[in-house]
Fold this protein.
Amino acid sequence: MTASTLTSDNGASSGTSGIKYNGGTDGTLQIQTTTSGGTATTAVTIDNSQNVSLVNPLPVTSGGTGANSLSGITVGTATNATQLNGQSASYYTNASNLASGTVPTARLGSGTASSSTYLRGDQTYATPVTSISAGTGISVSASTGGVTVTNSSPMTGGVCQLWVNFNGTLTGTNSPRASLNVSSVTYNGTGDYTVNFSITLADTNYAYVTGVNNIVDGSGQGYAGVQGSRKTSPATTSLRLTGFGTNDGSAQNQLTVNVAIFR
Amino acid sequence: MAQVIIYTNENGGVSVCIPSGELSIDAVKTKDTPDHSIIVDSSILPNSDNDFFDAWVLSGSTVAVDMTKAIAVQQKNLNIFAKTEANHRATNVGAGIENNLSDTDWLALLATARTAIAAATTTQQLRDAAAPVQAAIAANA
């Protein structure tokens, strides 16, 4: 069988557009349109297996009726589809319907997601804080949780502003055993101590608490303690103390003197 | 040895300022001690005579024990011991407990000690002078 062409124009003179039926030699059947210049363009092809292909997709209009099922068809755009898999469009925009799989970390926030970062409230992956510094003088260890306070100004809130434990017997080398916010201890005489602060307290209306553990000098009888000096008033930068012991209250050195100041 | 800050205080004695380590010793000197204070090595202090700290005097950068002051310190110490023991002895008498020394011997012991203290020329002699009194006190129940 030879190829044949059936042309059906609009009855006008040559060169006008029309419809052309083109039977191919391989058994295909084409339906073409022809421009006024004679250029033919295939619109529909039916091959020898009876498959139909369209150059342009068929429009599907709202409210139209079609096949009960479509298979093997790629839909380029379905702008106004009302359902997919029996669900409305809102179903697929509701995060509560995520029931399987894992949301990629890149969808959750910016930055680098890793085992050493966490997702902040501003949707940014950030490195965990290993230590914090709230102003000058306080830090928290991420490894031990220990809080180190080395404040250069008084703390507020009725806390212990400073404390010290020192040997009240002068040996020349006995710096305070332990302390906070105490710069030095001055030995002025037997049982006569000045605790010097490394901070300046707000005023002198602070409460100081003292204690000793034993008498070093004296007879070993009677009582012992440390009290505020009778000749030097408390100051915002220092506190002078008198160690005493024995029954007559004479000045005495103390093996251990403990002082804490609250404000 | 550690460094300390020393200066002559308002009593004519020596004040010894020992930093805690929170601040440098220069900062402590500026903040905690008067202008005439000096920084010295603690080894220059007469540490073997700490019990006579109130008799220390500073001359230049040297600290030494003033024996006149030391004698006064030891006399004061002896008086403290004596008064404390006097109360103890009276309490014993009131409680029917016999003291280890008679009043006569006790007073004689004190007098001997006071004489020895007044004549002492070294701090060790001062300690030795008071030692019998302290031993008697310790032995009296």
